Amino acid sequence: MKKQPNSFFSGQLFEDTTELRDDSNDVFTIYSDNISELRIHKETGILYYYRNSVEQDDLTAFQQIRDSFHTLKFIDTWTQASHFEGYDKENGQVTYRRYLNGMPISGALDRGLIRMEMKNSGLVDLYYPTEIIQTPLEDREQQIVLPDAQELIVQLNGAGIPYSAIEDMGLGYEWISNDESTRVASLVPRWFVKLDGTWSTVDDAIDARQRGDADGL
């Protein structure tokens, strides 16, 4: 995998890069001007951008989706498909999901998720994973067998997650970083479940529920 240089994103997200302040620390690379701030987590590569302006009017859902799609074309360097995932009318955020070989990418840090908020002045809020797959390497000797959906529903129910709480389920890739090299990541097929508007692996959902039950004791 690879990352675009920070200069690429600062050039795309700031109108004038000559006036940028560098407020970086041990955790984040940070650039800012009088109205905007760009943060890139040095370890995970997750980018956070926020622009503040008093002259920002709300857009309709159609306008948000249309404008976010056009903005995404200029900043997204993912070589395969990125599909529209949803629009949250409560916070005005549009989400897109990255795909590889027809399957969505998710995981603990959700390196497959792109989240954007648009105003009449343009992009004002962005969550963006800067790491992209450069050369997929297939291990044809490793075979992964996944349980069927009914087995997982029984497993979730046994962990205290009723069927009525499951908003959606689906197969996808879990992005797992390599401890030995920052240029290699594993994409492992997993079952994902959507609870309270958030996707996670079935194992993570069960672990979170068990930790919550333990904390409540």
Please give a structural write-up:
The chain is α+β, with helices and mostly antiparallel strands and about 220 residues long. It is about 20% helix and about 40% strand. The protein is built from four helices and 14 strands. It has helices at about 5-15, 60-75, 150-160, 200-215; strands at about 1-5, 20, 30, 35-40, 45-50, 80-90, 95-100, 105, 115-120, 120-130, 130, 170-175, 185-195, 200. The strands form two sheets. Strands 2, 3, 4, 5, 6, 7, 8, 9, 10, 12, 13 and 14 form a twelve-stranded mixed β-sheet that branches. Strands 1-11 form a two-stranded antiparallel sheet. A hairpin with a 2-residue loop joins strand 7 and strand 8. It is globular. It starts with a strand and ends with a helix. The model has no long low-confidence stretch (mean pLDDT about 85).
Question: Span between N and C termini?
Answer: 43 Å
Strands, count: 14
Q: What is the arithmetic mean of pLDDT?
A: 87
Let me know the largest β-sheet: 12 strands, mixed
Order of helices and strands: EHEEEEHEEEEEEHEEEH
Proportion of strand residues: 35-45%
By oligomeric state, this entry counts as: single chain
**What's the number of helices?**
4
Task: Catalogue the unreliable spans.
Answer: none
Q: Tell me, briefly, the overall form.
A: globular
Round the Cα radius of gyration to an integer and report it.
19 Å
Secondary-structure class? alpha+beta
As a percent range, the share of helical residues equals: 10-25%
